[in-house]
């Protein structure tokens, strides 16, 4: 009773009782770090919208993304090679649009759970020959819960059996009412096969982005979110990060969850090595100590030492979080009363 225990030991003993010892100080530190600083409006400039494509399986999400990419990314850009980094930027007459190409809702959901938001606008793809299906509803719920603007793309209008009116009718139940029916939701009939309606869809994305007044300060230390990451045989841990604020530079010290490091190289969605990446830019980064998780926040720190120390705090914090999900919390008194 009179001997002191270090944290590790206390944790070990607590685990024997299926309980958790809180390390409150650590949690505070992490929460403090993740807090968003107030930014001066005068430092903010317009940034491209970040768009994800959601919808029921087989309604044409992949086809739509492919069509947009192939018709809006000039082939010369990467010598004809299209790099897959989980996101890409298209150039339109109204400016850039960043598309997230991460499969399924998983990354999206985990980001939301971590309180991080990656997407500004969701394109809800509904096949005109199939209508509203379970994953359509799921997608609507996800987008609404995250407060993301929804644009409906009624796809496959080239098909004989397409019924645009029916889709509009079905979506009323989910409060997605077209403007011509007195609502405020944008509906775009498209065909990912013929390309019909896609330019109009992109126009609507830009218009929506304008209304949302999406801005970021490019002149600060970068902050972003991991879209996907993996261990590459030759290159080590590789993470695709969406820069959300500030500008990321080669050589920057970064902390991402329990990973840290110095950005050794950056590769953009066209497979090109770049030195800087501003707001709404997806980039692959090399030089991390380990593979981070999708949805984790990337922070640029003043030094590598600081980045490492943040990562270490995350390790302690993460372990605690994990335990608290499965185990009850307990004070030391409870522990000794067992
Ligand atoms: P995802 O599961 O939502 O990613 O759907 P896919 O893009 O894989 O498309 C599912 C199927 O629908 C594929 O066979 C596509 O060729 C087809 N498809 C997608 N878009 C269209 C379209 O606009 N018109 C027609 N006729 N077929 C389409
Ligand atoms: Mg697909």
From TrEMBL:
Domain spans labelled Tr-type G: 46-215
GO terms of molecular function: GTP binding; GTPase activity; translation initiation factor activity
Gene encoding the protein: infB
UniProt keyword list: Coiled coil, Cytoplasm, GTP-binding, Initiation factor, Nucleotide-binding, Protein biosynthesis
Cited function: One of the essential components for the initiation of protein synthesis. Protects formylmethionyl-tRNA from spontaneous hydrolysis and promotes its binding to the 30S ribosomal subunits. Also involved in the hydrolysis of GTP during the formation of the 70S ribosomal complex.
Binding site for GTP: 55-62, 101-105, 155-158
Places the protein is found: Cytoplasm
Entry protein name: Translation initiation factor IF-2
Protein family membership: Belongs to the TRAFAC class translation factor GTPase superfamily. Classic translation factor GTPase family. IF-2 subfamily.
Chief location bin: cytoplasm
Coiled coil stretches, renumbered: 150-177
Keyword Transcription regulation applies: no
Keyword Acetylation included in the entry's annotation: no
GO CC annotations, alphabetized: cytosol
Residue range from the parent sequence: 206 to 543 of 750
Chain intervals for the UniProt region annotation (G-domain): 49-197
């Amino acid at each position: 009773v009179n001997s002191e225990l270090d944290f590790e030991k206390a944790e070990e003993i607590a685990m024997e009782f299926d309980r958790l010892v809180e390390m409150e100080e650590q949690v505070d530190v992490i929460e403090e770090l993740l807090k968003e600083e107030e930014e001066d409006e005068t430092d903010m400039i317009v940034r491209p919208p970040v768009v994800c494509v959601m919808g029921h399986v087989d309604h044409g999400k992949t086809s739509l993304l492919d069509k947009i990419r192939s018709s809006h990314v000039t082939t010369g850009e990467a010598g004809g090679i299209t790099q897959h980094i989980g996101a890409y930027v298209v150039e339109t007459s109204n400016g850039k649009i960043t598309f997230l190409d991460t499969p399924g809702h998983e990354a999206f959901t985990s980001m939301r759970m971590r309180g991080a938001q990656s997407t500004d606008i969701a394109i809800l793809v509904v096949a005109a020959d199939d209508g509203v299906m379970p994953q359509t509803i799921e997608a609507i719920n996800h987008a609404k819960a995250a407060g993301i603007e929804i644009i409906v793309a009624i796809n496959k209008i080239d098909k004989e059996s397409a019924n645009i009116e029916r889709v509009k009718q079905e979506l009323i139940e989910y409060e997605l009412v077209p403007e011509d029916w007195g609502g405020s939701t944008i509906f775009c009939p498209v065909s990912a096969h013929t390309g019909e309606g896609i330019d109009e869809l992109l126009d609507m994305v830009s218009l929506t982005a304008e209304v949302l007044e999406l801005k970021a300060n490019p002149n600060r230390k970068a902050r972003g979110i991991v879209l996907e990451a993996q261990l590459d045989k030759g290159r080590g841990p590789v993470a695709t990060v969406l820069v959300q604020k500030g500008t990321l530079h080669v050589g920057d010290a970064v902390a991402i969850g329990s990973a840290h490091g110095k950005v050794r190289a950056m590769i953009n969605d066209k497979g090109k090595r770049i030195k800087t990446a501003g707001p709404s830019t997806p980039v692959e980064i090399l030089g991390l100590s380990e593979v981070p998780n999708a949805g984790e926040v990337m922070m640029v720190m003043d030094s590598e030492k600081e980045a490492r120390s943040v990562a270490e705090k995350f390790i302690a914090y993460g372990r605690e979080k994990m335990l608290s999900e499965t185990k009850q919390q307990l004070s030391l008194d409870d522990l000794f009363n067992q």
